[in-house]
Specification:
Strand order of the largest sheet: 1-4-5-11-6
Number of helices: 2
Shape: globular
Largest sheet: 5 strands, antiparallel
Oligomer: single chain
Structural class: alpha+beta
Strand content: 25-35%
Order of helices and strands: HEEEEEHEEEEEE
Helix content: 10-25%
């Protein structure tokens, strides 16, 4: 029992950046940040839960699915937020689209895209939606195409 206590203490105090899929809803702290773990099939990382889909949906269908899970399509806050995806070769829908009214790229919550978040950010068609992939790369594609997607739920 003492060994288990030491292992658990070390797991939550080392600040590990490796995400681990949660076995299901629990009340154990996530990464020592005072948050709680994620539901089954979601990945916990730095007080957020991420659902990385295997199925393909349009951008709107992806957004609706995320909303049904009390989350939103991925909104990135910094370049290192999804370092744990660096081995993926897939691009995923994220919650970024162009506002014709404001003439700017906006996240689902209405906040503007930071100009230094993606480099380079060369989007040809502002009618398209944005996909995120490895090495901080983004692509634009017709929002009606079906692609995998990432949902994000902030725990705190």
């Amino acid at each position: 029992m003492a060994t288990l206590g030491i292992l658990l203490k070390n797991a939550f105090t080392k600040g590990s950046v490796q995400p681990t899929p949660s076995p299901g809803p629990t009340t154990e702290p996530l990464g020592g940040c005072g948050c709680y773990s994620c539901q089954e099939k979601w990945i916990g990382f730095r007080c957020n839960c991420y659902f990385i889909s295997n199925e393909r949906k349009t951008w709107a269908e992806s957004r609706d699915f995320c909303a049904s899970q009390n989350s939103s399509l991925l909104q990135l806050r910094n370049r290192t937020e999804l370092d744990f995806l660096k081995f993926s070769k897939t691009f995923y829908w994220i919650g970024l689209s162009y506002s014709e009214k404001r003439r700017v790229w906006l996240w689902e919550d209405g906040s503007a895209l930071s100009p230094d978040l993606f480099s380079p950010f060369h989007i040809v068609n502002t009618k398209n939606c944005i996909m995120y992939g490895t090495n901080n790369n983004v692509l634009d594609e017709s929002c009606k195409e079906q692609n995998p997607y990432i949902c994000k739920h902030r725990l705190i």
